[in-house]
Structure formats: structure tokens, C-alpha cells
Amino acid sequence: MMNAMRLLLLAAILSLTACGFHLRGSNIQDVTFAFKSLYLKVPAETPFVTDLRRALKTNKITLAQTADQADLVLEIVSEQSIKQIMSLSGTGRVQEYQLFYRISLRAYDNKQTNWLPADDISLSRIFPYDDTQVLAKQQEEATLYKDMRSDAVGQTIRRLLRAKPQLETQ
């Protein structure tokens, strides 16, 4: 009985993929940016910047060598990782941390017209801690920061996707 259900489920999935069905937004070729080339102005080469460059190349954005050659300049103003104690046990040991990851960015063109006004991407995670498992908790912390960095890259790409010249209001 279980094999028949699995076979039926497999047939349904194959028929959906064979007919060309895909979720809306899952096809990268449907995505078009309002610019063709981008200069990435960063204070330092960090893992976030590396991941962002990779994501931009995946989305077929040409990365210019200078700001003059680019349609748009994306400036990563700052990147911060902060770890704060959230709770302590009765003996004074840390039970939970709260991890923060924040990216400040803005985008503008050669005429200094804002495409993305200065803004922050702020993410946080709660990190339960046990000092009897130090190595495992260090890896878990690194994984949480990597997850937040990946989320920040995705949010940056989505913001660039809807970026357009902002009209100055007086």
C-alpha cells in the first residue's frame, strides 16, 4: 500500500514538472533589474561581501571595477555582529545569548540620485548556550551568523530588485 502511494506521489510530481509548472518567482530568468552594472563600494572584503558578489553574479549583474563604469553604486556603509547576554542561571552562568547582525547600505547612480536611501538590514537570533559543550556551541553560533549573513544577502538582492531612482521632494 505504501509503495503504491509513493508511486502515485512520484507520478504526480513528475507530471507537474513535465508540464513546466514552477512556483512564481522561482525562475531567475523572470527577474529583471533596472540597471545592468553595479559597483560595490565596501569598507573591507568580508564573508558578506563575498556572498553578495556571488549572488550578484548569479543574477547576471555585471560588477564594474570603478564607480564611473557602473549604472549603480551599492555602498555597504557598515557591517556589525554583536553578541549580548540574554539570560543567566542562578549560579551566574550564561543560559542564552542574543546574536545581532546588521548591514547598513545605500545605492545611488552617477548623478548622486538615491536609488535606495540609507537603510539597515537588522537580523537577530536567540542562541541557547551550555558551557559543557563549548565546541558544539561555537559551531552553532558560527552557523547562526552564516544563516543571518545569507538572509542579509537575500534581502539586499530583493531591495536591489525593486530599486529605482528616488525623486527628490522639496
UniProtKB/TrEMBL annotation:
The membrane-topology field of this record reads: Lipid-anchor
What's one Pfam family here? LptE
GO terms, biological process: Gram-negative-bacterium-type cell outer membrane assembly; lipopolysaccharide transport
Q: What is its main location?
A: membrane
Q: Give the record's GO CC terms.
A: cell outer membrane; transporter complex
MF GO annotations: lipopolysaccharide binding
Signal peptide region: 1-18
* PROSITE patterns attached to this UniProt entry: PROKAR_LIPOPROTEIN
Keyword list (alphabetical) reads: Cell outer membrane, Lipoprotein, Membrane, Palmitate, Signal
Q: Which residues form a coiled coil?
A: none
From the record, give the transmembrane residue ranges.
none
Q: Which domain of life is it from?
A: Bacteria
The compartments listed are: Cell outer membrane
Subunit text:
Component of the lipopolysaccharide transport and assembly complex. Interacts with LptD.
Under the heading HAMAP family, the entry gives:
LPS_assembly_LptE
Protein's job: Together with LptD, is involved in the assembly of lipopolysaccharide (LPS) at the surface of the outer membrane. Required for the proper assembly of LptD. Binds LPS and may serve as the LPS recognition site at the outer membrane.
Q: Which family does it belong to?
A: Belongs to the LptE lipoprotein family.
The protein in question is named LPS-assembly lipoprotein LptE
Taxonomically, what lineage is the organism?
A: Bacteria, Pseudomonadati, Pseudomonadota, Betaproteobacteria, Nitrosomonadales
Designated gene of the protein: lptE
